[in-house]
Amino acid sequence: MAVxxxxxxxxxxxxxxxxxxxxxxxxxxxxxxxxxxQRALAIxxxxxxxxxxxxxxxxxxVPEARAMRAEIAADLAxxxxxxxxxxxxxxxxxxxxxxxxxxxxxxxxxxxxxxxxVVVAGAVLWRQAAGGPPPAAEGTRPAGEAGGPxxxxxxxxxxxx
Amino acid sequence: xRAVWVAVVGRVLLWLALAAALAAAGCLVAGEQTGRxxxxxxxxxxxxxxxxxxxxxxxxxxxxLAGGDFHVRYVAEHSSxxxxxxxxxxxxxxxxxxxxxxxxxLLCGYGAYLLARPPRExxxxxxxxxxxxxxNAAAFCWLVAxxxxxxxxLPTAPADGQGLNRLLHDQSFLIxxxxxxxxxxxxxxxxxxxxxxxxxGEAGERWIRLTHRWTLAAWTLLSLGILMGARWSYxxxxxxxxxxxDPVENAALLPWLTGTALxxxxxxxxxxxxxxxxxxxxxxxxxxxxxxxxxxTRSGIVDSVHTFAQSPIGGQLLALVGLATALSLYVIGSRLxxxxxDRPLEAPLSKEGAFLLNNIVFxxxxxxVLVGTxxxxxxxxxxxxxxxxxxxxxxxxxxLFTVALLLAGVGxxxxxxxxxxxxxxxxxxxxLGAAAAFAALLAAAGVGGLGVVxxxxxxxxxxAAVLYDFGLAVAARLRMQPSDPxxxxxxxxxxxxxxxxxxxxxxxxxxxxxxxxxxxxxxxxYDQVTLRVGETAHLGPLDLTYEGMGAYAGGGAVHAYARLxxxxxxxxxxxxxxxxxxGSDAETASGTxxxxxxxxxxxxDVYVVLEGYSPGGAEAVFHVYLNPLVTWIxxxxxxxxxxxxFSLWPRREALLAPRSHRVFSLWAELEYDYRMGKxxxxxxxxxxxxxxxxxxxxxxxxxxxxxxxxxxxEARVARRVAELEAQACPAPVGAGRGLA
Lengths: 161, 740
What we know:
The complex is a heterodimer of chains A (161) and B (740). Chain A is mainly α and 161 residues long. In chain B, strand 9 and strand 10 form a beta hairpin. With 740 residues, chain B is an alpha+beta fold. The radius of gyration of chain B is 29 Å and the shape is globular. The chains are: A mainly alpha (161), B alpha+beta (740). Chains A and B meet through helix 1, helix 2, helix 5, helix 6 and helix 7 of A and helix 13, helix 14, helix 15, helix 16 and strand 1 of B.
């Protein structure tokens, strides 16, 4: 038994190591620090394309979005920070341009939405789950009364195991 | 003349269907209220008529699309003579009116199936359930008969149609909407049975037992629809991604989230008689969210990349959403005393507790996504237009999805009723250790980013936990009934398909989550890669050589493509041909669309979009994406469907003897839990005695049913024999002969 367990443990460890190293070989070339272009595209993903239907400035392939991407890359090269660049677009188009509005004023509620949802759903569910009659019937029943289930039921049960 | 005929007949069919739906709903309800069997029979007949009329209308529209009857406005607007036949037929759901007719047809199809093969235990609930389906069908009949009819004629027929939107010329378009709608509409059936049970004043788990297969089937089809939609987005839209929390995508995600919660909490009610009111609310919420999703998709109030279809029926759909919500709440509210639980939660540390947590997480996800989807639509009325896009949704949902992923691993390891903390800890330790080692190795190997390491680590934990638990069960079985391990594993799975199908789904979720995390955090993107003929671009591990432009005609359009030679780490990987479709004269609706070229791989996809080229093709501009592990999402999706189908596969014993089947499978699960060390001995013995009693009762009840069926059958045979004999020989000569 102990030997079997050890063998299984070793197999498991080998599988975990192989999976991790295999995955790392694929993912590592893509990791690394972001290039200027990556950073520009990441910022563009925070902005909506002003002329498209529901696409970001990073994903859209229209001249306006391309111009925005080029502008962001130029700003980054000129040493502007992400905050400054986003603020410039807000000044130009209004806060509507941001896909992730800042948590200011009433919009703070938006960022609390999941927490509020968890509290509300949790409270409702807990009330419901704790609400039934007390568990008198089953837990306290003498366990082996009449020696448990009948033998023919036991035989039937074997078909299900 | 012919096309005018099609338009007129189509609308007449739908108006008659509306009348039949109202008649069916009215007769069925009246029959239940007055107890007159004739009314019930009339209601059923009216439902058959409804299904027949809707089916005929659907066939008529398909015929008009196949035959190119451009007198019919819908046909002219969504197909052309050049559209290939498969896409002409697919145009049925390519537009607003056709989509609504598809919804209606599927609803009627499900209803007809219930009429033809009524669930054995659910005869009593059928009249109200069918009445609810008929009422729902009536609303959609009205929409497709009057304000959004696919059978509106054009005053003069154009020579050719406008063609199908080029973005929909993709194989996944033929499957994705149908699967999605099958799932959407499928949730109407559990809803109808739940409401029917409440209307009849039934306490108890009957509707849950009757509909768990429906719920799972609808959930599976919805999952398939969502995955196919993601694949369509990935292959066709040319933006390197597959999911963007677009309002229309959210419309499909919302019922999926509540449906996932329902699948789990229904088990708590089925096995433990708890969460009854919660489940009633959840099934109603899921149904209402499918209607809400249709409203969102079809009303045109949201701006979305998916708005292929919109018209001013939004108000009416919203009214339907409101009506369904109000009616559901009224029915549930008026029957609250029936929905009292049999017992409270015994211990938070139990499978019930894990399912409770699961429900909190999934319902919170649904609420969050709902708020994020609706807020941008209503915010202009409050003075400030707000946009919420992927950056918002990803940040607010990521923590909840992470907890869901961890639960996918913990849930299966916890025993029902009361799990020992020590036993649970012992079971959690190996998968936790494996996941921690996995994450540490990834980090050490230089796969950076806390999010990636944590996300992949959680996915690894879920997968390891499920596999470990399965291993323990196999070991327990080997101790009970010695055999070789493979036989033991197969027997174990075959004896409890519901549980182990679920395990496969959890494993699939871990694989999908890995794909999502990696492709999200580690995607590499190269914009505006401009190359002359013969020039090579070095993009990270990748070399791309541009060899020039070409063109071909196909699928009713002209395509221009660039030829690229691809190599990675010095190894040649062949050619990639990203293209743009230039459309054709006939297809004025289409214009230019991108046709990205994707080299799929288990590790990473190379995804190239042709963004532009100079006349003659001396120079071309590309947008290149390296997408890690996207293939894992499709593989995981396949496993997910496989696991769900395995759970659903009809089993003879389950059909013949549903009650004892249920008790014995629960009992067997208990035996395994005990032998795997998840239960204390006292709890085990108490539960075992209870299952023994329940099994006895179930077997006795089934024997009684069998006796009754047999007696009925014998009586019928005797009647028939008597009839035949009366026909064959009127004189009482052969009276002594019989089948007995």
